[in-house]
Amino acid sequence: MAAALKWSTACTDWRERIVARESLVPCEPLFPTKAEDALGVFKSLQVVDLPKNESDRHPTLGEVCDQFVFDLVAAIFGAEDPATGKRLIKEFMLLISKKNGKSMIAAGIMVTALIVNWRPNAILQILAPTLEVANNSFEPAMGMVRADPDLAVVLKVVEHQRQIKHLDTGAVLKVIAADSDTVAGGKASITLIEELWLFGKKPKAAAMLREALGGGSARPEAFTLYITTHSDEPPSGVFKSKLAYFRDVRDGVIDDPATMAMLYEWPLELLDAETYLDPAFFYVTNPHIERSVTVEWLKAELAKEQIGEGEGLQIFLAKHLNVEIGMRLRRDRWRGADYWEMRADTTLTLETLLARCEVVVVGVDGGGLDDLYGLCVAGRERGTGRWLYWFKAWCWPDVLARRKEIVAQLLDYQKAGDLVICDEAIPDDGMGEDDADYERPQDIREIVETIKRVKESGLLPETSAIGLDPQGVSDLVDALAEIGLEAPAVVSVGQGYRLMSAIVGLARKLKFSGALHDGSAMMAWCVSNAKEELGRQTVMIVKNTQGTGKIDPFMAGLNATKLLELNPIAANDNSTSVYESRGLVVL
């Protein structure tokens, strides 16, 4: 009896390999004969986007592709045991910069899969998030078939249905734009997911992909290939979770030999050094450099975007250099955004903040039903004097219904525990049989419960302990009174230009390590949404995008900062604020 195959799909030395232009495939094809057969087919397919040569044919994939493509093809098709038809590696991801022939590679792999497939009436599918992306994959596949007279004998293109049928096996390759109708009840055995980053913006994408991939569970030869660039926004939804899983497999954190990742991204040390701006290293995430994309073109486009230093630059870095966007740093960004991520302390929770601080204040910013209700607990650390910040937010389903563009992100923040999406039923008339039955809304109750915990710690000052945006907080003020917090402990914090000292001061604190925060993804997003608006002698914070660019928790943090500026003393401390003794208490 033959010994069982043993292999690992971890590639723990990928950082050295990617800089040295070495293969990112961690192991040789498990079944070399299967790999060679598929490579023979793949390399023979013609690329109709390129002009014909002297032999009156278009260049083939074998002539235009770099070795990394052949390594991927060999790994995919070489993972199927020819004796049993069972595929031992079933999920693959290729993360690669734009303009590296992604759609061409996708089309070639799927046409190859259709040709070498042995299952009668098999269904193969290229699943794309939009009709445009679907056509980007179908057109090169159609061209490959029509360009080869031999293929035209066995493969039939049905252009209006975006399908290619194998006339001998009855197998069909479908190229479809994803929605709930087209993928419901999917029976495909082989699936290629194009532009996974766009699926990450769809709130129900995870369930949709599970439905689309369900057919592969009953077919031993099944595989799924995800091909994508980086997102033009911080990763979210199914893209974020899938990317994290593939990274963990690659890094050896998760032992999953049925999953393989080929991720052309920057090692952390090169990111920190901004090496991605050096044209000499553009190849790191552009393995087809000088084939489908040139250094000169990338240099010219980068130079154009650097003039503005706006969102265009970040989108270029994400799409063409595969730099993951953590915060979209624009020219008009809040100046503290440059230092926000480096001042994250993920050990900071409400409990640890209370344990570390000698005095604590609370900032609240309440928006409408279309906004988040932001809460910030901030304190002065005992011994160091650093300002520590912990954030949480609440919203109602109205936001999910009205702002579908950010639903996936909000669900991620809910999953992380930083955002509460209220789910309590709302009474028809808002009242019970008598006034005593009235109960405050879920967000107000939970915010007050949190503030009550802070109060019970004894760390709140007697005056200026809770700072509120004065707009739309009457319900909260009433609820705070019920737990014994009223003026002068509860104060109104002036907004607009009146927050200027907090806007400027917190940025300086962050720059020089004088402030730390809990490091939540939600707050990185909120901070990235904050835009500085300069007057002749003032600075204000506004949203960079109306409707979707939520900043409420960040504004709560600025309200808390205004209170910390007063150098408060906890109620259980007998000393007096130096600023109070000097008559400088100003909100």
From TrEMBL:
Span of domain Terminase large subunit-like endonuclease: 269-560
Q: Which GO terms describe its molecular function?
A: endonuclease activity
What Gene3D superfamilies does the record point to?
P-loop containing nucleotide triphosphate hydrolases
Which Pfam families does the entry link to?
A: TerL_ATPase (PF03354), TerL_nuclease (PF20441)
The segment(s) forming the Terminase large subunit-like ATPase domain are 73-233
Show the InterPro entries listed in the entry.
P-loop_NTPase, TerL_ATPase, TerL_nuclease, Terminase_largesu-like
Q: Which domain of life is it from?
A: Bacteria
Name used for this protein in its record: Terminase
- What organism, scientifically named, is this protein from? Novosphingobium guangzhouense
